[in-house]
Write a structure and sequence with these properties.
Chain lengths: 587, 284
C-alpha cells in the first residue's frame, strides 16, 4: 500500500507562502520521497489568500488529492476555505489566540505564532518558519535540511538573519514535540533515494531550452509564463544565452525572428494575451520560413480572464493562429519530464521544418512542482544532440565564382518542402527572407505560378512532418482490455494517470490516450485508434472541448462523452472517479 | 572592393522623381565607400514604398512586416553583433505602427542604423496622412485636415537618449551618403531621418518646399551638445526650419557591451553550453 501525505499551508498573500511550499517540497524529496505541489493565489501582491499544498508519497506522484492530512492555517480564512477537505485523521495547525475552531472532528494543534513573533521581535514574514518547524515536527522530520536551506537563502543577509530564521523554526518545532508528541506522524522516516530535482513546468521548459542550445529567449512578463523569463535571465551569463525583456510581445517575437534568421536557436514565451499580440508575426515566420519556438502557457481568458488560475482554453487559437496558410506544429507536454524533452524536440522541429512550433502549457503545469530523478535530466541533456535539419553556415555543395556574390536560393523548391537555409554571413552569397510571397531566391513575386510553387512547397512540410516526426498519443493503462478510454492532452495527463490507478483499485479498468503532438494530426493512423469498441471520454480543462473539435476536424473521430471543467481550477482525480462511477457530468 | 553594381538588384519601381531613388542610390554608395559587399551588411526593410527597396538592393536582408523592422534588427544584432545592421523604413512604419519599438530601441542604444524615409504620407496605400504630417494636412484619411500635431522624430530621438541623430534630404545625395556612412559607423543607435518628397501624394512637402525650408548645419556646428540639438529640433516644428546634418552624437556603451556572454565571441559562433550539473544542483 502506497503512503501519501498531503500538507497544505495557507495565509495572506505576500507572506511567502509559495517559498515555504517549495522549501517543504525540497525537504520532502531530500527525505527520500516523491512530491507534487500546487499553488493557488489571487492576482494581487498583498491581501487575498494564498495556499500551497504538497503531496508527499513513497511512490511517484503526479497530482494532489482531496483530503488534507496536515493543514497549516496562518489565518482563519485557510481553515474556513479548507475544512471540507479534512477527515478524522487530519491535523489542523492554527493559533488559538487568533481564532477559535469549534469543530472537533479532526486533530487540532495550536501554535502561538503571534506570541512567538512578539517574544522574538520577529517580522511577520517569519511566521512561515514557525509553521515549517511545526509541520516538520508533525510529519516526523527534523530541522537539519531546513536549517541548511535557511543558511543558503540568507547567507548574504548575515548571521543574525540566519540565526533568527532558524530560531523561529525551532520554536515551532519544539512546541510540537513538547505539547503534541502524540500526534506526530511515524509513517515517513528518512529513506535512501537517488537525488531528485524539484521542478515546475516552467523550470522544465527553461532547462529544456538550455539543453537544446537555445541562445536567445525573449519575453514580456505574463502570468503564468513569467518564471521562464526570470529563470533564464538568472542563468543567461552562466549558459551564454541572451535573455531580452522587450517592450511588448510584438517586439518579443520579432527580436526572436531576427536572431533566428541570423542563425541562433530562439524562443519566446507568453500566455494567451501576449501570444495574441504575436500572431501577425507568427504568420511572418511561417512565410519567411524562420524557425521559432513559442512557449504558450495558458490561463483562463477571454482577455485578462483569471490571470492566476488554470485552463486549456487556447488550443484552437494556437492551432489557427496567424493569417494566411502556413505550416505550424503544436505540441503539449503533460508533465515536467515531457516538458524538458518536448521543449528540446520543439527546437529540433522548428529548425527541421523552418516554421513556428508552439509548446503549450497551462498554469497547473507551469507553476506546480514535481520531483524527478536528477540523473534523468542530466543524462538526457548530456546525450541530446541538436538536429538543425537543413540549416547550415556552409555552402560547400554550391559552386560559386569567388569573384562574385550570388543570390542563395533560400526558398528552393524541394520534394519534402524544406529548403536549405544558409546562416547569413557567408561570403560570396546573399539572400533576403521575405514576408511577401517570393520566388526561390527571396525576391518578391505576384506571379500565379510562383505563388502556387511556394504555397505547395510550404504545405509539403505538413506531410513530411506527419511521415517523419508526428507522434501518436502515449497509452497509459491497457486500452485493449479497458472498458473506458480517456482522451486528453497536456497537463490533464497527471490527473488521469492517477485516476486510472484509483479506478483499477475499485475494479474499473480504464486507459488513457495522452496526446502530446496536437497539430497537425495524422488522420489515417488516428482513426484506427478509435475503432476499438470502448467508452471514450474526452477530458479537457476548458468549456468547448477544443481538442475534441480538433480531433473531429482533422480525423472525423467524434467523442460524445466529455468531462469539461472551466472554473479556473484543475480537474481533480476525485472528480474524474466520481464522474465515472456516477456517470453524471460534474463540473 | 565592391561596386554599386554589386549592390544593385531589380530596377526600382518607385514613381519617377520619388525621393526614394536618391535614398536608394545613397545607401549603395555608402555601403561601397564603407568597404562592404552584399555578404557583409545586413538590412531589414519595413513595409511601404521604402521597404520595396528590398528587391532593388542586394544584401543579406529581411523584408519584414509593417512596423517590425527594428525588433528584427535588434535580434540580428544580438546574434551577430560584429555585423553592421541597417533598417530601411518609412515614417508611418517606424513612427506610427512601430513607434513603441523606436522608443525602446533608442533607450537600449542598440547598435543599429535607422534610415527613415520621411515623406509625411503613406505612399503604398495611396496617400493617407503619416504621423509626421503637419497638423491640418489634408489627405484621403484626413479630408478635413489631420487633427493631431506631427511627430517630431529628431526631438523624440534626442529626448529618449539617442546617441546619433541626423537628418538628410532626398534631393542631396552626397549629404545623405555622408550621413548614412556616419550613422553606420557610429557605435550605438543611429537615426538618419530623411526628408523625402512623395511626388505623387504629397503636394505640400515637395523638393521646392524642402529646398526653401531646410538648411545645412554649419561646419563649425558642435554635435555634442544635447541642449543645442533639442532647440534646433524644436524649431523644425515651430518655425518650419529643417536642419540637415548630424544634429547630435555621443559615445556611450551599446546594448551588447553590457552582455558578458558576448565578450569572447558572437552569439551565433559560441560553443554550446553543456555543464548541466551547474544548474541541476539548484533544483535539488
Amino acid at each position: 500500500m502506497r503512503k501519501r501525505f498531503l500538507w497544505k499551508i495557507g495565509g495572506e498573500a505576500g507572506f511567502g507562502i509559495q517559498t515555504t511550499g517549495l522549501m517543504f517540497s525540497k525537504i520532502a524529496t531530500r527525505m527520500g520521497y516523491h512530491i507534487f505541489d500546487y499553488f493557488e493565489y489571487p492576482s494581487l501582491i498583498r491581501g487575498g489568500h494564498n495556499t500551497t499544498e504538497t503531496l508527499v508519497s513513497d511512490e511517484e506522484v503526479t497530482t494532489t488529492k482531496h483530503e488534507v492530512d496536515l493543514l497549516v492555517c496562518l489565518n482563519k480564512a485557510t481553515y474556513i476555505l479548507h475544512k471540507h477537505r479534512l477527515t478524522t485523521s487530519s491535523i489542523v495547525v492554527y493559533d488559538s489566540e487568533e481564532f477559535a475552531i469549534e469543530e472537533d472532528t479532526f486533530k487540532k494543534v495550536s501554535v502561538p505564532f503571534k506570541q512567538f513573533l512578539k517574544k522574538e521581535m520577529a517580522l511577520i514574514v517569519m511566521m512561515n518558519n514557525i509553521a515549517l518547524g511545526a509541520a516538520l515536527a508533525l510529519i516526523g522530520w527534523d530541522l537539519t535540511i531546513l536549517n541548511e536551506m535557511i543558511e543558503e537563502a540568507f547567507a548574504k543577509k548575515g548571521p543574525e538573519v540566519v540565526s533568527k530564521n532558524k530560531k523561529m523554526a525551532l520554536l515551532g518545532f519544539d512546541h510540537i514535540l513538547s505539547n503534541y508528541s502524540q500526534v506526530v506522524c511515524q509513517d515517513f522516516p528518512y529513506r535512501q533515494m537517488y537525488k531528485q530535482m524539484v521542478l515546475t513546468g516552467n523550470d522544465a521548459f527553461a532547462l529544456g531550452a538550455i539543453a537544446a542550445d537555445c541562445r536567445l529567449y525573449c519575453a514580456y512578463p505574463m502570468t503564468p509564463s513569467s518564471t521562464v523569463l526570470s529563470t533564464l535571465a538568472q542563468y543567461a551569463q552562466t549558459v551564454g544565452m541572451i535573455v531580452r525583456h522587450a517592450e511588448d510581445e510584438i517586439s518579443v517575437i520579432n527580436t526572436a525572428i531576427g536572431s533566428s534568421w541570423a542563425g541562433v536557436r530562439s524562443a519566446v514565451g507568453s500566455s494567451g494575451g501576449g501570444f495574441a499580440l504575436m500572431v501577425e508575426s507568427l504568420s511572418f515566420a511561417g512565410v519567411a520560413e524562420i524557425p521559432i519556438v513559442i512557449f504558450l502557457s495558458q490561463r483562463p481568458g477571454p482577455a485578462t480572464g483569471l490571470p492566476t488560475w488554470t485552463e486549456q482554453g487556447d488550443l484552437l487559437f494556437a492551432v489557427n493562429a496567424g493569417h494566411g496558410e502556413f505550416p505550424k506544429i503544436v505540441i503539449a507536454p503533460g508533465d515536467i519530464d515531457e516538458m524538458y524533452m518536448l521543449t528540446a524536440e520543439a527546437f529540433d522541429l522548428a529548425d527541421i521544418y523552418q516554421t513556428p512550433v508552439i509548446v503549450m502549457s497551462d498554469k497547473l503545469l507551469s507553476e506546480s512542482h514535481m520531483s524527478t530523478p536528477a540523473i534523468k535530466y542530466s543524462d538526457w541533456a548530456q546525450n541530446y544532440v541538436p538536429k538543425r535539419g537543413k540549416i547550415s553556415g556552409d555552402t560547400k555543395q554550391i559552386q560559386n565564382d569567388p569573384q562574385k556574390t550570388q543570390a542563395f536560393l533560400r526558398y528552393a523548391v524541394t520534394d519534402d518542402g524544406i529548403s536549405p537555409m544558409l546562416i547569413p554571413g557567408k561570403k560570396g552569397f546573399f539572400y533576403q527572407s521575405n514576408s511577401y510571397e517570393h520566388i526561390e531566391d527571396g525576391h518578391t513575386t505576384e506571379e500565379a505560378i510562383e505563388r502556387i510553387k511556394q504555397v505547395d512547397k510550404r504545405s509539403r512540410k505538413n506531410q513530411t512532418y506527419l511521415d517523419t516526426h508526428f507522434k501518436m498519443p502515449t497509452f497509459f493503462g491497457t486500452p485493449a482490455s479497458s472498458t473506458i478510454i480517456f482522451v486528453s492532452w497536456g497537463s490533464t495527463k497527471s490527473v488521469l494517470v492517477e485516476a486510472i490507478k484509483q479506478l483499477e483499485e475499485k475494479g474499473i479498468s480504464a486507459a488513457l490516450y495522452h496526446f502530446t503532438h496536437l497539430f497537425p494530426l495524422d488522420r489515417a493512423k488516428l482513426r484506427d485508434l478509435f475503432k476499438l469498441d470502448k467508452r471514450f471520454i474526452l477530458i479537457e480543462n476548458n468549456s468547448h472541448g477544443q481538442f475534441g473539435k480538433l480531433l473531429e476536424q482533422e480525423t472525423g473521430v467524434h467523442i460524445d462523452e466529455k468531462i469539461l471543467k472551466y472554473d479556473g481550477r484543475p480537474i481533480w482525480t476525485e472528480e474524474v472517479i466520481d464522474y465515472v462511477i456516477n456517470s453524471g457530468v460534474k463540473n | 572592393m565592391s561596386t554599386i553594381q554589386d549592390f544593385s538588384g531589380y530596377s526600382p519601381t518607385w514613381c519617377p522623381g520619388c525621393g526614394d531613388w536618391g535614398i536608394g542610390a545613397s545607401l549603395k554608395s555608402a555601403f561601397v565607400q564603407l568597404g562592404y559587399d552584399p555578404s557583409s551588411v545586413y538590412v531589414v526593410f519595413g513595409i511601404g514604398c521604402s521597404g520595396n527597396m528590398n528587391d532593388f538592393l542586394n544584401a543579406y536582408a529581411i523584408h519584414s512586416l509593417h512596423g517590425r523592422a527594428i525588433p528584427n534588427a535588434i535580434g540580428i544584432k544580438l546574434a551577430q553583433h560584429d555585423r553592421p545592421v541597417v533598417c530601411v523604413v518609412g515614417d508611418g512604419d517606424c513612427y506610427g505602427e512601430g513607434g513603441n519599438h523606436f522608443l525602446h530601441a533608442v533607450r537600449g542604444n542598440h547598435d543599429i542604423t535607422l534610415v527613415v524615409h520621411d515623406n509625411c504620407v503613406y505612399g503604398l496605400t495611396t496617400g493617407q496622412a503619416a504621423p509626421t504630417a503637419a497638423k491640418g494636412f489634408k489627405s484621403k484619411s484626413t479630408p478635413a485636415g489631420i487633427v493631431e500635431s506631427a511627430v517630431n522624430p529628431l526631438l523624440l530621438a534626442l529626448t529618449q537618449g539617442a546617441s546619433f541623430v541626423a537628418q538628410g534630404f532626398a534631393g542631396d545625395v552626397p549629404g545623405m551618403v555622408s550621413l548614412i556612412k556616419q550613422g553606420v559607423e557610429h557605435r550605438g543607435f543611429s537615426l538618419v531621418n530623411i526628408l523625402q518628397p512623395c511626388v505623387t501624394f504629397n503636394k505640400i512637402n515637395t523638393y521646392e518646399y524642402y529646398r526653401e525650408k531646410s538648411y545645412k548645419l554649419e561646419e563649425s556646428y558642435k554635435s555634442d551638445n544635447l541642449q543645442t540639438a533639442v532647440s534646433i529640433a524644436l524649431k523644425q516644428a515651430t518655425e518650419e526650419k529643417y536642419p540637415l546634418g548630424v544634429l547630435y552624437k555621443n559615445e556611450r556603451a551599446v546594448y551588447t557591451d553590457s552582455l558578458t556572454q558576448l565578450s569572447g565571441s558572437t552569439l551565433v559562433s559560441k560553443n554550446r553550453f553543456t555543464e548541466y550539473k551547474k544548474i541541476v544542483t539548484d533544483y535539488i
